[in-house]
Amino acid sequence: MTLFFTEMWERFSYYGMRALLILYLTADTASGGLGFTVQTSALIYGIYTFGVYATGIPGGWIADRILGQFRAVLYGGVLITAGHFAMALPGIPAFFAGLGLIIVGTGLLKTNVSTMVGSLYEDGDPRRDGGFSIFYMGINLGAFLAPLVVGTVGQTYGWHYGFGLAGIGMALGLVQYMAGKAKLQAAIERIEARQQAAPAGDASFKPIALGVGGGVLGYLASTVSGADIAMQIMVSMVGLFIGGLAGYLSDQTFTGDEWKRIRAILVLFVFSTLFWAAFEQAGSSLNLFADRVTSLSLMGFAFPSTWFQSLNALFIMMFAPVFAGLWVWLAGRKSEPSSPAKFVFGLVFVGLGFLLLVPPSLASAYDGSAATNDVSPMWLVGVYLLHTVGELCLSPVGLSTVTKLAPQSIVGSMMGVWFLSVAIGNFLGGWIAGFFESLQLSQLFGAVAGTTIVAGVILVFLVPSIRRMMVGVH
């Protein structure tokens, strides 16, 4: 329960701020916003959300080699708290400084708290997937409350009050984390024992050299191809992280079976990226769709547009116990779908969610300029329900799979690699949201739906090969 509540408050701070971010960036200066265009705002949003997940790789490495998971989570929480309080101050410098602190702090906290959850269970314990689903309930309790509380305060009383309230949430999480340290001692000792027992390669400059080389090659390739500045940044950063990862893994000593498992993680990484590119538009294009296109009243009751951000979390809390029990029940009857098969379901359901938005987008009078708020809110309710089903099939299962497949000497780093798929997906989602005003919404959402559903179909044919890579893991 210590990790449950720690992550709940961290997610309260993150999702509270995220619910306001693109609205604050696009709001005119007269209302206290920054007055940026949708394209610029979506780029900033994409870079920020890329950063909070991409820094999980160095955050995992720092925990594995220097701080340990417990202290990494603690220091990360302190930085996140400082970042939110910085954003509570007026002025663009304080705003961007706050974003930077949150990026670094989340890199330390996010991957390592998930690693600690996995270490609560012995190897082969069938409760692990269910444990991660329950952990997901803590995440989504915070995510449910944040838009209702932080979103309402920010949209009603002022953006900076909302950002400050998010900081208070993270501070409460830190207090709870330190109070429950004794309950985590067994998990801490298990992590330390596994890391000491597992072989590791000697340190070298190879990760740095290959990381810099990958970043430079990514920049040159994207520049020559004529990509815009957003894609140049994304490709360069991805090249940096992939090059560094290749150098880091080549420095390690693994068995043949361990290398197969690493390859399985990397294949699933690609499909995870596509899933999150669609799913994480919740804070960008879907947030704008709620604010500008969707009716903000139901049966005479008016509500802020940020409240839609709570729907996914509400559905998670409703259905996470159902899915946790379902996997255990199917496992007992030897008919549980494999982890790659669950990924297929995740991709298809997130695609169906965007497909559901095509009819109301065609019927709406919204043309990319003035808000119309002429679409029933029930359409977005349906979208978030389908997305939630997809998330429960893919996200907690992906976290659990990484903790089972990754060699124990680098489990924190591989969890960081996993969150890099979320990072790239977030960036792509922000980049796609930049077309919100320049494309017809039916075209935008239809393209996202088609891409994810086709990816799910492709993955169906790859499932047998991936399962063969997952040596000794079921």
The CATH architecture can be named as: Up-down Bundle
Order of strands across the biggest sheet?
1-2
CATH fold type: Growth Hormone, Chain: A
Largest sheet: 2 strands, antiparallel
Portion in helices: over 70%
CATH superfamily: MFS general substrate transporter like domains
Count of folded domains: 1
Q: What is the 3D form?
A: globular
Q: Supply the number of helical segments.
A: 18
Class derived from helix and strand content? mainly alpha
What portion of residues belong to β-strands?
Answer: under 5%
CATH domain class: Mainly Alpha
Briefly say what this structure is.
Helix content is 77%, strand content 1%.
Question: Would you mind describing this structure in some detail?
Answer:
With 474 residues, this protein is mostly helical. It has one domain (2-201, 252-469): Growth Hormone, Chain: A (Up-down Bundle). It has helices at 2-26, 38-54, 56-67, 69-87, 92-118, 128-157, 159-179, 185-197, 206-224, 229-250, 256-279, 285-292, 311-332, 339-356, 358-363, 377-405, 411-433, 441-469, and strands spanning 297-298, 301-302. The protein has a two-stranded antiparallel sheet.
Annotation keywords:
474 residues; mainly alpha; Growth Hormone, Chain: A; 18 helices; 77% helix; globular
